[in-house]
TrEMBL record:
Pfam families: NepR
Protein name per Swiss-Prot or TrEMBL: Transcriptional regulator
Domain annotation Anti-sigma factor NepR: ranges: 15-48
Length: 48
């Protein structure tokens, strides 16, 4: 059962990281997060 809890925590953490990255990037520029950053995040998630 710990696996489900860990999966939920991990998903929440990843969502928070995504939101914070978008927030910081959008504060610095008026552009959205570049696709290359989104691709990098996806690759990092796949490695785990």
């Amino acid at each position: 059962m710990n696996t489900r809890r860990e999966d939920r925590k991990r998903a929440a953490l990843e969502k928070q990281i995504d939101e914070n990255l978008r927030r910081v990037y959008e504060q610095d520029t008026s552009e959205q997060v570049p696709d290359r950053f989104l691709t990098l995040l996806e690759r990092l998630r796949e490695q785990d």
